[in-house]
Structures are given as structure tokens and as C-alpha cells.
């Protein structure tokens, strides 16, 4: 049995040959080959179920590594496992949401690939004069018509990678929000080889953005000299963005320039209490 791809190539070759020989002499001729190509293209695209299942397993593997095995805590220094367990229902809901969104993207990409293939064919076929053409480069025509289908597997791999990173980023954001993070330090992977980074994301590298409405802001202990996390696009939000936040929870871990006078005084007092053996409570680190 011929492979779906070979069947499509054969149908396309026959369609190009027929239109090259006869030209656009009737709408029926073009519609006939369009139907044949659509059926063949659908066989190439195939059912999205297998790819969706593969993507679902991949996202669930990321979830297990970050949540069930605690890998998420590496970018949340000072957060205990009990906090991760407390917000787990929200994290699981995000996994389910991301699985749905990813599957929908795959279905849309497959539909788009077939539609673009038929559009290119009909655009070319309707340009051939009745009686045919002696100047048509059949190889170029076939390559142009088939290129959307040819890139489908690559596009689906990109979706899988991008959605995996978006899941990891979303889980981290949820833990930061529900865990009471004060700020986040932006990390760009602009040094990564062959990474097509965004210039404005590179400029954010190392910058610390405050989480709006956190307890230290409300208490007048810190400021946001470089703005807030919700002032800019989120890490991993844009397509193929690989940036991420390292979240800050302890007042002492903030950059010096983010402290108010009141905040510096409170931090010094907390350090003094922690250095005495008869301290009444923990240092101001939350």
C-alpha cells in the first residue's frame, strides 16, 4: 500500500500534468483535481488524535517533573513543599487548560495546511490559459503547492516545544502568585546558540520586577524602580519565548535599590533579632 505522502505526490503530479496540458478550460476540471488533492492532503495530515496524545503525554511528563517531583521549587527559593501541595489544584487545572489549548492548535494547524495547499493549487490552476502551457515548470509548481503540508510535522514539533515551555512558565507563575512572591528576576536565554531571541527580552535579562500588590509594597518596605511583572509581556508568553523568572520571596534577597528607608530599617532590625539568642521570632524573610 502506498504511503499517504506518496499518494498525495502522485495525485499532485497528475493534477499539474493535466492542467499544464489542457489549461483552465473549465471550472469542472479544476474542481475535480481540487477534490482529489483535498482527499489526498487529508490522508497526509491524518487524524490529529495520535499527535494530540503524544503532546498530552509530553505535557504530563513536564507536570510530573515540576510538580509531583518538586522541580518547580528550584526557581522559587525559600518556598516549602507544603506551599506547592497547597496550590496543586490550581497547577493541575493549568495542565488541563494547556492540554486543551495545545490540541486545538494542532487541529487548527492541520486544517490550515490543507486549506493553504488547495488555495495554492487553485490559484495556479486558474492562471493557466485554456489549451495548456509549454512554459510551466512542473517541479516548481508541485513544490510550491505542497510546501504547507511538507512543513506540517516541523510546525507540530514547534507547537509541542512551545507549549511545553508555556506550561512550565504558567505553573511557575501560579506558584509565585499563590505563594506570595515579592518580585521576579527575568532570565533571557539570549546566549543560547541558535536561539532567535527578542531584543527587548535580552534587555530585560537580570532586571527585577516587583509583583504588584505584594505584602512588602503594601507595608511600604519596597518600591518598584523597574516596574511590575504585569507591566510587560510574561516570560514564555510570546511564541517561542524561552525566558523565565527566578522568583524572590524574602525581603533580604531583593536588590538594594528596591528598599524604601522603612524597608532598610526593618531589614536591619530583623537581622539584629536573628543574631541574638533570645530572639522572639523568625527574621523578616517572608
The DSSP helix count reads: 10
What is the CA–CA distance across the termini?
66 Å
Q: Specify the overall morphology.
A: elongated
Provide the β-strand percentage band: under 5%
Determine the mean pLDDT. Answer: 88
Secondary structure category? mainly alpha
Textual characterization of the structure:
With 286 residues, the chain is mainly alpha-helical. It has helices at 4-22, 27-45, 49-68, 81-86, 88-125, 138-150, 152-179, 199-203, 215-218, 261-274; strands at 183-187, 208-210, 244-248. Strands 2-1-3 form a three-stranded antiparallel β-sheet, with helices on one face.
Topology diagram in text:
Layout: H1 4-22, H2 27-45, H3 49-68, H4 81-86, H5 88-125, H6 138-150, H7 152-179, E1 183-187, H8 199-203, E2 208-210, H9 215-218, E3 244-248, H10 261-274
Antiparallel strand pairs: 1-2, 1-3
Helix pairs in contact: 1-2, 1-6, 2-5, 3-5, 3-7, 5-6, 5-7
Task: For this entry, give a set of tags.
single chain, 286 residues, mainly alpha, 2 domains, 3-stranded antiparallel β-sheet, 10 helices, 58% helix, disordered C terminus
Q: Quick recap of the structure?
A:
This protein has 286 residues and is mainly alpha-helical.
